[in-house]
Design a protein that fits this description.
Layout lengths: L8 H7 L17
Protein name: Transposase
């Protein structure tokens, strides 16, 4: 799997709604 740290914000915003399982941060940002 790709490292989430290397995922660009623009790309993450597009794939975020596709993976609701990663919703761990209350801010809705990228999980560390």
């Amino acid at each position: 799997m790709t490292r989430r740290k290397e995922i660009p914000i623009a790309l993450w915003k597009r794939i975020e709604p596709l993976i609701p399982q990663v919703k761990r941060s209350p801010k809705g940002g990228r999980p560390r």
